[in-house]
Amino acid sequence: MNLVERIAKWVGVDVTAVNRPELVAFRETMDAARASKRAEEYAEALDAFERAGKLCEQTGDVMALSVVRLHMADIYTRLGQFEDAQMYINLVLRSGDGVYPTAPRAYAKVALGVLQLARGEHDAARDTLDDAAATARKAKSPGAEGRAIRLRQQRTHLRQHPAGGGRRGVGHLRQHEVGGR
Length: 181
Prior knowledge:
The chain is an all-alpha fold and 181 residues long. 76% of the residues lie in helices and 0% in strands.
């Protein structure tokens, strides 16, 4: 039990994980961010995800921070701001210096594959999505594996039907958000 929990218990305040103020604030901020993202109000969503990211940093929640960063990468990909998207993906891939859980890495590799598709880098996307699926299998993350496989299949479809180029790929892939949790 940490100091805050001990003091709270002493004064009779419930600060279990569900009720801790910083976690409640994080949940509320993420709900607002996701709602703005779904409504395609990206500036609002990015602001909310930034706030959520700061809350994650304050609590040291690396897993939640990776989710926030992947949502931000997804938005930047949708906006065609590929360097910003790449930066957030790289932050997730580099987190933990190799000891980071592999499920977030799998999702980050899926995000990278989507980014590569948006850039028109179909061969690189194929390899990245194959790697994402393999990473997801090792991590026992069926969600990430399913996204990687589905996007890999769509990548094949986009290669066979290239009308509309890379931008079509971004619009076509919107239904498969990489940070959809």
